Amino acid sequence: MRSFSSFSRFLLTVMLPLVLNAIAEEQAAIELPVQSGPAALPVPNPTKSLWVDTPGANPLGKEGSTGALTHDADICIIGSGITGVSAAYHISRLLLEEGVDGKDLKITILEARDFCSGATGRNGGHLTPAFFQGVVGYSALYGTEEAVRAIALEQHTSSSIVRLIKKTGAEAAVDLVEGGHTTLLFTKPEVVVAKADYAAAKAAGINVDSVKFLSEDEVKETYGAEYPAIHAPGHNLWPLKLVTHLYNLTKDTLGSKLTLHTNTPVTAIAPIIATSDTSSRRWNLTTPRGPVACSYVLHATNAYASHLLPHMHGPSGIIPTRGQIIALRAAASLDNITKSSWDGNDGFEYWFPRPLAGDETEPLVILGGGRESTKPKFELYTVDDASVNPVVGDTLRRFLPAAFPGKYEAGREPEMEWTGIMAYTKTHDPFVGPVIDPAQPDAHKGQYIAAGYTGHGMPRAYGCAEAVAGIIVADIAGKEYTVPDWLPRHYLTQNRLHE
Ligand SMILES: Cc1cc2nc3c(=O)[nH]c(=O)nc-3n(C[C@H](O)[C@H](O)[C@H](O)COP(=O)(O)OP(=O)(O)OC[C@H]3O[C@@H](n4cnc5c(N)ncnc54)[C@H](O)[C@@H]3O)c2cc1C
Ligand SMILES: *[C@@H]1O[C@H](CO)[C@@H](O)[C@H](O)[C@H]1NC(C)=O
Ligand SMILES: *[C@@H]1O[C@H](CO)[C@@H](O)[C@H](O)[C@H]1NC(C)=O
Ligand SMILES: *[C@@H]1O[C@H](CO)[C@@H](O)[C@H](O)[C@H]1NC(C)=O
Measured from the CB, is residue 248 less than 6 Å from ligand 2? Predict the structure, then answer.
């Protein structure tokens, strides 16, 4: 790699309309004492996203929002994003595989707004597993074995999703693109961190053979940006269509035993006083359409988790954090842009070109980021995805024309702009397993959670849902759950009590 301190490099760097090296400040902001109470429910009338609001894209949008409500189920899943629907899929599959007699087990999914209209319906569309990123930090915090598992979880999740899509012939239905992923390294500290993580991963025995470091000349030649980069395998897709496909597969297995009620927020959960009736359920869920009684409850509510679980608000729990996206038409052909997905600036910016549709000649590029321009707030503790932040929008509009001269037209307005709510945690890792309130450890028996992916959920949520589904099915079967090799132990709620 060429020297970084050349004058031209410095000039280009300062010309980027970005706040650089802001990651440490964001982390400090996350760790500040509680700035607000529990999260609100998802707000009505969210901004329109490409994934949800393209005509015909969300056939399940209003499913089960009118008519009779399911008043009784074995398992209630709250939230219809990738976590909730993946959990339903895994539970149905595991019941069959484990030989548990699940013939009559009923699952209902309750969703506050339209189907999959949370983060999964509003995100950046990347399915990018880590290959080596974060290994140094993980090893320091939790030891090398856990660092290896953190990578393994992402590899397991991404390859499982891609395998399932291919096995069920759904590549076209979900717009799966194997375009690889490129990380632009704008500053010297980013290069230093990347090299250290790469070396640590290699030393820990992680396979990094498919990872390539590119010099700024190589990047300029192939991609037209003048920064060094890292290239690795990766996919992009239409997240809501993947979740719809997972729902369809689950429905094929469970038939009428699976129900979905959109536009049905759960507003409270109360224990049901046990009666002599042995079939009595444990939990009574309140919705505006009436109560739902369940034996098991899965909180797949991500950013909104603390609304129903107030002990999870603030830095020791889940902080709702608003992300913003623009869909910008490129000024060059798809061949020139390439099919790679991208990130840069410590992951604050991320983008990829959509496959060409109809008679399009230049691709529509989905770009997210810009939160660092709101520092010191970073859009933390913001649940309002019905509005956009103009400061963030301005940064997003100026970024691609500056980073890829000639490929984007300066001043061009995006075709769409929307926000979505991510779920930040202090360690950036999700909570997976039984709900545990340290102040009353036995108060939530039968309630489970998988949430808190900190803006990096596509290569983790489906795997975390697999784990929590396994925990629930083991409990139903009266068996001990065997934690898979690929699941970081520190994701498990029982190991998170002292954060
Ligand atoms: C702008 C943005 C960009 C992102 N980009 C990427 C990316 O490119 N790659 C990546 O890997 N990750 C990305 N993420 C993160 C990723 O989208 C999430 O980690 C993932 O979608 C989380 O899935 P989930 O099912 O857990 O949560 P969600 O999809 O948010 O689903 C939770 C659901 O629960 C519902 N709900 C909440 N409370 C209740 C209640 N009380 N009753 C009923 N329903 C309720 C919500 O309405 C919502 O539909 C991004 C996120 C955002 C917001
Ligand atoms: C799922 O099923 C619905 C309705 O049955 C159908 O319209 C839709 O195309 C299917 N979606 C995917 C992605 O398989
Ligand atoms: C559940 O709560 C509702 C009020 O929301 C109440 O009317 C109902 O009796 C409760 N059901 C059980 C089984 O406790
Ligand atoms: C891509 O675009 C740049 C600038 O617009 C141009 O110089 C280059 O030749 C193009 N490359 C390809 C492969 O079309």
Answer: yes
Look at ligand 1, atom 53, and give the residue with the nearest C-alpha.
420
Which ligand has an atom closest to residue 285 CA?
3
Structure tokens at 251: 């429905």
Burial readout 14-38 (b: 16 or more C-beta within 10 A, e: otherwise): eebebbbebbeebeebbeeeeeeeb
* Closest atom, ligand 4, to C-alpha of 331: 5
- Residue 223 CA to ligand 4 centre (angstroms): 9
Domain-by-domain residue ranges, the chain? 50-120+240-316+428-495
CATH (residue range 50-120+240-316+428-495): 3.50.50.60
**Closest protein CA for atom 7 of ligand 2:** 59
Residue 367 has pLDDT above 50, yes or no: yes
Q: How far is the CA of 6 from the centre of ligand 4 (A)?
A: 25
pLDDT digits (tens, 9 = 90+) for 65-88: 999 999 999 999 999 999 999 999
Distance of CA 181 to the CA centre of its chain: 17
Evaluate if residue 3 carries a pLDDT over 90. no
Output 13-18 pairs: Cβ under 8 A, ≥24 positions apart.
13/186, 13/187, 15/402, 16/186, 16/345, 16/399, 16/402, 16/403, 17/394, 17/395, 17/398, 17/399, 17/402, 18/186, 18/345, 18/348, 18/349, 18/372, 18/373, 18/395, 18/399
In whole numbers, what is the pLDDT of the chain averaged over residues? 94
HEC assignment per residue over 187-202: CHHHHHHHHHHHHHHH
